[in-house]
TrEMBL record:
<keyword id="KW-0472">Membrane</keyword>
<feature type="signal peptide">
    <location>
        <begin position="1"/>
        <end position="27"/>
    </location>
</feature>
<dbReference type="Pfam" id="PF13855">
    <property type="entry name" value="LRR_8"/>
</dbReference>
<dbReference type="InterPro" id="IPR032675">
    <property type="entry name" value="LRR_dom_sf"/>
</dbReference>
<dbReference type="GO" id="GO:0016020">
    <property type="term" value="C:membrane"/>
</dbReference>
<keyword id="KW-1133">Transmembrane helix</keyword>
<keyword id="KW-0812">Transmembrane</keyword>
<feature type="transmembrane region" description="Helical">
    <location>
        <begin position="335"/>
        <end position="357"/>
    </location>
</feature>
<keyword id="KW-0677">Repeat</keyword>
<dbReference type="InterPro" id="IPR052286">
    <property type="entry name" value="Wnt_signaling_inhibitor"/>
</dbReference>
<dbReference type="InterPro" id="IPR001611">
    <property type="entry name" value="Leu-rich_rpt"/>
</dbReference>
<keyword id="KW-0732">Signal</keyword>
<dbReference type="InterPro" id="IPR003591">
    <property type="entry name" value="Leu-rich_rpt_typical-subtyp"/>
</dbReference>
<protein>
    <submittedName>
        <fullName>Uncharacterized protein</fullName>
    </submittedName>
</protein>
<keyword id="KW-0433">Leucine-rich repeat</keyword>
């Protein structure tokens, strides 16, 4: 009996010791369930109005992505930023990846230069992918083929793609060539939001570059070098926000404005179209006047339309489009007013002069009339007194 009890006690103690060792080991790897992830922080967090299991490997100094093969299956949000991974390998989450809960991947700011065509597998549940601030080349270069048009093809349910400053500098030509191929080959039928700011983009190889993104609502192209509305937007039936801020646009032609109107007035639409066109070198000319007039009557919403400026080439000055147009109006009506006053003065002078010159004949002509009036007044007074 005693013996039994003692052995049970020792068993229990052993169990407790083992358990506590396991527990401290777990604690040491920050709830991440694997030694490879020990530099990361894992746990539940309240994000996007829900509790999510977040794996956060920020500034952990990783130079390879091996730890991504052992992500906990329950991971909802992967934050992997500020590391140094030049090349994202094939099957980055492992061949047998089973990450059906993964919704967000943030791989911003990792110095990524190349993404292998088959990097992302089993990512059908991911809704947001962020690759901002990297150095990605997607064009063919020397013997190495960086061209992987199917790079996003497994993101069947992707809603947001963030590619702000994602590409290597001086690749705008290749980028323009390849983006279309990528979108055609990736079947991003649910993509809602696309960020492509700060990528030095000037032009597109194909004006239908975005036409394979039929669900696109918000397109961010700010901080590029785009010189005009040089891509098709009429195919983007759901477009509700187009950001062209801080580009190199010198004018919007009547055709461009008609295009915006045509899209905004499409009967199948349920939302309005908003444009951001601030901070572009729009020239002060007939086109800019036309732009202002259009902005006052169109159904398209223009963000900060009162702050739109144009560039006066002759005087090297930036002018506010609204005050420029309105001051011209004001100048015109002022001139009209002065003219009117002058004319009235001349008329009055002429009448006075005429009356003065012909005062005798005027008097004789008017006297019978005056007399009649006086008489009439007298009669009326008498009549009223009689009553
Ligand atoms: C991830 O970790 C970094 C650094 O510890 C922190 O600044 C950031 O807020 C974390 N992100 C989330 C979503 O918890
Ligand atoms: C980006 O890549 C180019 C070569 O493609 C390299 O010269 C440059 O230093 C890289 N920039 C950064 C910030 O890594
Ligand atoms: C594209 O995705 C849709 C569903 O999102 C699917 O029905 C269709 O077959 C896919 N097409 C291709 C070419 O993969
Ligand atoms: C911006 O446009 C002007 C012509 O309007 C052109 O001379 C200039 O090179 C363009 N800048 C860039 C960075 O493309």
């Amino acid at each position: 009996m005693y013996l039994n009890c003692a052995s049970m006690m020792s068993q229990a103690t052993k169990f407790l010791i083992v358990a506590s060792i396991l527990f401290t080991a777990k604690a040491r790897i920050n709830n991440c369930e694997d030694k490879l992830l020990e530099l990361c922080v894992c746990g539940n967090q309240y994000i996007d109005r829900a509790t999510k299991f977040v794996v956060n490997c920020t500034d952990t100094g990783f130079t390879n992505s091996d730890m991504l093969m052992v992500l906990p299956k329950k991971t909802n949000v992967l934050i992997f930023t500020g590391n140094h991974i030049s090349i994202l390998p094939v099957n980055i989450f492992g061949e047998q990846a089973d990450l059906t809960a993964l919704e967000v991947i943030d791989m911003s700011n990792n110095g990524i230069t190349e993404i292998k065509g088959k990097t992302f597998h089993h990512v059908g549940s991911v809704r947001r992918l962020m690759l901002n601030h990297n150095n990605i080349s997607i064009a063919e270069e020397d013997d190495r083929n960086f061209h992987h048009p199917r790079v996003f093809s497994n993101f069947e349910n992707l809603e947001e793609l963030h590619l702000t400053n994602a590409f290597a500098d001086n690749t705008d030509e290749e980028l323009a060539d390849d983006l279309h191929d990528i979108f055609v080959n990736s079947n991003l039928t649910k993509l809602y939001k696309l960020h492509l700011e700060q990528n030095e983009i000037k032009k597109w190889k194909d004006e239908k570059v975005f036409c394979d993104l039929p669900y696109l609502h918000d397109l961010y192209l700010g901080d590029n070098y785009i010189p005009s509305l040089n891509f098709n937007i009429l195919c983007l039936k759901k477009l509700r926000y187009l950001d062209l801020e801080s580009n190199n646009i010198s004018k919007f032609t009547q055709e461009d404005l008609d295009t915006f109107d045509k899209l905004a007035n499409d009967p199948s639409r349920t939302e309005s179209l908003t444009l951001e066109i601030g901070n572009n070198p729009i020239k002060c000319d007939a086109n800019s006047k036309n732009l202002y007039a259009w902005s006052q009557k169109t159904d398209v919403k223009i963000r900060n339309e009162d702050a739109l400026t144009c560039w006066n080439v002759k005087f090297g000055k930036i002018l506010n489009l609204k005050s420029l147009t309105e001051s011209k109006h004001a100048k015109f009506s002022k001139a009209l007013m002065v003219l009117l006053v002058v004319l009235v003065c001349i008329l009055l002078t002429l009448i006075t002069a005429y009356v003065y010159l012909k005062k005798d004949s005027v008097k004789t002509k008017l006297s019978p009339v005056l007399e009649a009036i006086t008489r009439k007044v007298q009669y009326t007074t008498i009549e009223s007194q009689e009553v």
